[in-house]
Amino acid sequence: MATKSATWAYRDSFPSFARTYFRRYSDCIISSIGLGTYLGDPTDAVDEQYHAAIIRALDHGINVVDTAINYRHQRSERVVGQAIRDADADRESVFVATKGGFVPFDTERSDDPRAYIEAEYVDSGIIEPDRLARGIHSIDPDFIDDQLDRSLANLGLDVLDLYYVHNPETQLQTTSREEVYDELEATFARLEERAMAGDIRHYGLATWECFRVSPDHDSYLSLSEIIERARAASDTAGTNATHFRAIQLPFNVHMADAFTVDAHESSEGMKSALEFAHDSGLNVFTSASIGQGELAREIPEAIAAKLSGDTSAQRAINFARSAPGVTTSLVGTSTTAHVDENVAAGTFEPMGARAFDATFE
């Protein structure tokens, strides 16, 4: 598990970064640029590339690694775990997050996905077939419990720093919003128990669109309701305070809805996801920070002119981590060359609040 002393010592070993490069997460301090592991074919060759990239990142100033059990059919989790063991950086200085929700294949896609899911998860009693949205997704407490165990084994870790329930809005395609809130509360209670048992430090929600769309959208989920459900789950589990600590959502130059759409009700009126999360004490991790590579090729000139960085990718990263309330911007990176480019973005200061706001005027 990442610790206060180890993460602060890690920060102190990299004095060349700009002042706000490292940011607070609980009592730890973590890099505002993180490494994502979503993209890439499920092959040994890509595993080797990720292994080298993760080690390069950890040894050069990125101490946040994000993955998920379904990424590359469990290969991403396994290579993350191996790279952490092989890197010079101590495990206690590295912040590791993973996710569960989508049914994962093992190593490669099954030739008969339905038969695989039935044999591995339905016939074994882990999940009832009617609890699977689109036949591939579940937030059922027993399923998430199982996935957490598998993730710990894949990563070779005793404790996860952050465990996300993955894209809960997928459930809204087959289930009512109130039922989704109820099931999330039950799953949160299970994760509170896992936190008390020492298997995870915190948990959260990794989302695609539910927090950055308007309340009348079919995929909408309310952050205020989610927080209330997390508090209720804490009471059910008997913890002193909720371990719900973070959200993940897309944010980049072209996908700025988390900042521009006021969708979450508060005592002070409607707020954007970023503002609401910040005011509620939640950490925010941005995905798609360079638009899955699109913004590495070109960024709008009017915005690029206001950003620091030597390359389009660096400027795009610095835009994402300039947003108010953002702790870390995740960038999918499977080559050491891209790691070096991304790390160098951290030597530049992000935009100030006024300059950031001005990009939307």
TrEMBL record:
Pfam families, per database record: Aldo_ket_red (PF00248)
InterPro entries recorded: AKR2_Oxidoreductase, NAD(P)_OxRdtase_dom_sf, NADP_OxRdtase_dom
Superkingdom of the source species: Archaea
Residue span(s) of domain NADP-dependent oxidoreductase: 33-209
CDD domains according to UniProt: AKR_unchar
PANTHER family on file: D-THREO-ALDOSE 1-DEHYDROGENASE (PTHR43312), NADP-DEPENDENT OXIDOREDUCTASE DOMAIN-CONTAINING PROTEIN (PTHR43312:SF1)
Protein name as catalogued: Aldo/keto reductase
Organism: Halocatena marina
Lineage start: Archaea, Methanobacteriati, Methanobacteriota, Stenosarchaea group, Halobacteria
